[in-house]
Structure formats: C-alpha cells, structure tokens
Amino acid sequence: MEAKTLFDKVWDAHVVKKIEGGPSVLYIDRHFIHEVTSPVAFVGLEKRGLKVFHPELTTATPDHNIPTIEQHLPIKDELSRKQVNTLLSNCEKYNIPLYGLNHKWAGIVHVIGPELGLTLPGMTIVCGDSHTSTHGAFGTIAFGIGTSEVEMVLASQCILQPKPKKMRITVNGELKKGVTAKDIALYIISKISTSGGTGHFVEFAGSAIQSLTMEGRMTLCNMSIECGARGGMIAPDEKTISYVKGREFAPSGEAWDKAEAYWRTLITDKGASFDTEYTYDANDIDPMITYGTNPGMGMGIKASIPDGSDLEGSDKITFEKSLNYMGFTAGEKLEGKPVDYVFVGSCTNGRIEDLRVFANFVKGKQKAESVIAWIVPGSKQVEKQAQEEGLTDILLAAGFKFRQPGCSACLAMNDDKIPAGKYAVSTSNRNFEGRQGPSARTMLASPLVAAAAAITGKITDPRDLM
Q: What is the pTM of this model?
C-alpha cells in the first residue's frame, strides 16, 4: 500500500470525481457562512431557481461587520444592518441553522465551529473567509472560498478544486518562556515569506507543535494562509479527541466510538512524501512582532529591523515603502516605541486561553493611560466563560473594558477602526496598509506581547515583566 500523508487521506476520502487534467469534485462536510460573503451567493441560487442542497450542513453567524457594543440594540450602521438582516432572511428561507447576534452560540465563525463540535477531525470545511484554515487544527482540510464557490457549495455540497502540493513544516524542541503559537506562526512566515507556501497545503508537525493546546494549534493553522498556503493542518491526537468529546454537535455513543477509531488513523504514514519540507528549532523562537505591512515582516521583539541590504528590485521597493508607511527606519529597534492602541481578539487570538493569558499578565497592574485597548471575545461562550472565571473583573480592575463578540478591529469593516497614523499592537492576522483603518499602523503580536504593550504604553518584551 502506498504511504499517504494526512492531507492525502482526507482529500482522497472526499473526491467525488476526478476531472482528467483538471480539478477534482470535492465533497464538503461543513460549510460556514457569515453576513459579508454570502448575500450574492444566495442571489445566484435564486436566479437559477436552485435550493440549498444540504441546509443542515451549513452553519451561519454574523461576525465581520457587527458592532461589539450594545448588541441588544438595533444595528446603527445601515450597511451592517442590511447585511445581517439579509443573512437572517436567507437562513429563514432556506432553513439554514443561524446563530444570530444575541444567540448564546453566536460569535466569530472560526471560533464557534470548534467550540460547538461542528468541526471534527477528517472533515472538509469551507467558508467565504480566508481564515477558514483555522479548523485545520483538527486534522481537517479547511480553506477559504470565493462568493461563486459559496454558491456552488450551497447548491451541490461540492466544490471544484485542484489538488494542492504538500508541505510539511516541523518544529522540534521546547518553546522558551513567553513564546506562544502566534510567535511560531510569525517566525515561520518571517522565514519562508508571505509567498513561501503558495500552491501548498501545510502539515505542521514536531514536538513543539504537539506541545500546543488545541487553541494554540488553531492560532497556528489560522495563520498558515499568511505564508501563501491554501491551508494548514495538524494530525489529531489525544488532545484533539478530548477537546471534541462531549461538545454540542460531536457524535456520542456508538457513533463516537466509530468516529474516534477513524480519527486515530489520520496521521501521515511513515515514508509518505511531501513536495516541500522545512524544519525549525523551537529554541530559536522569541516573542515576535511585525515591523512592516505584511505578516512576513516580523522579528524577535529584541531584534532590530533588517537593513534591507540583501534585497533588490521590487522586494527592496516594497521594503522601503513599508517602512515609510510605518514610520520606521531600517536597523532600528522597536522595543520602547510608543503604542496608541492594543487589540486582543479575532479568529486568531480571541479564544478563552488568549484572554486568560492577557488577564493573568495584567492582573494587579494598570493599563497605561496613553493606550486605548479593545478586548474582544471570539464568541458568546468565550464571553460567558471569561465572566465566570473572573477574567472580566481582573480586566476591569486593571482599567480595561471588555467588549462583545465579533471580528472587531481585525479588518476595519465595522465601527472598531484604528485612526490614521496611530500605532496598534494587534493579536489579529494581517497588517496590510489600511487593514485596521485608513492609514492605521499595525504591529502583529501575541496576546502576551499585547498585554505588555497595554501596561507599559510601549513595545515591551513581556519576559522582562514576568
């Protein structure tokens, strides 16, 4: 028998038909939709007189363009209100499960899937959102799709997809104090660049990856597309299985036993080959921060911005333009630079563990007066848990306000925008020009680095305060 990778096993199990010299027809187990990328897809269905083929395999929630305060009131912004209402009416019309703004299961689509047990190992998962790769933490093939593809999946529960190449990124060894999954992600992207994974699906492996919690693995897989990859995945293990067990939509009884037995087969066989391989030592990774306008422009927090002398052509132009936008100089350090905003949240770092890390760090300290901080849970369940664990009390005592669930300042589509020229330390996933607001300047980092910046009012190595 041919040795197969984890990716091969899941992919091959979902191919309905291979088109000679073309893409495959891939069956999709779970389709997530939100208010921004689904309306046009539903219009397309209507024009063609089609129904949703498997409404029970689609799950909807509004997250991108919603307010994160006063969610019990009607939405003030006209576009946002229209998008959310359109999602509501489409879900009613086609009988699609929807967790609306004030539902106990509402939240960011990539946070609620795993916490509800809708995301299970071995699945194929799509959503009209690039960070669908998050679900790969469970050993799923999960990737973002465009609006026409959303329509395709709604109509047929299948998608046309060319099979990507395979990459394995192995990180071995023990992580140093203060280093998190977010730092691993930013470190890898800084090494292979934002195009290093293009055309590939990445399997993350090695002892450092296995040491991560499920929430840490979700952060890492979430960021996999920032190196240009189609998605990232991690083989299921004991942590995966214990995380899934007992969740709302997870199988139970005999169905659980059968599913678990299958999930345990989802590992890369010995001798299976990859198109590309990278190996890193966990001990080389420090808390990271970005200095430029793409997630690959990252460095250890105590390092200096590269001088760019090894760059030429368009790479050099991009580097110089990026530093000019950020107001930074080649060769300088970021440590000690003042910060205006801190954002903790998003599908990258809006889970309960992220809030615990942040709250434990700020406990007994006070937020810097110069800093505006937005602490945004990824879901209603995360919000509830934070309240029950007393995290919200810790935050309040330290001078922080806790907002309501939503994508918030990740993408400046809602009211939570960073003003022009201001510096934000953000736990989200992208730092492109204008990503968090027109002319906003974003530095990506972990919740720990964000906490240190929020307390000191400047870029600070959290290890110096631990």
A: 0.97
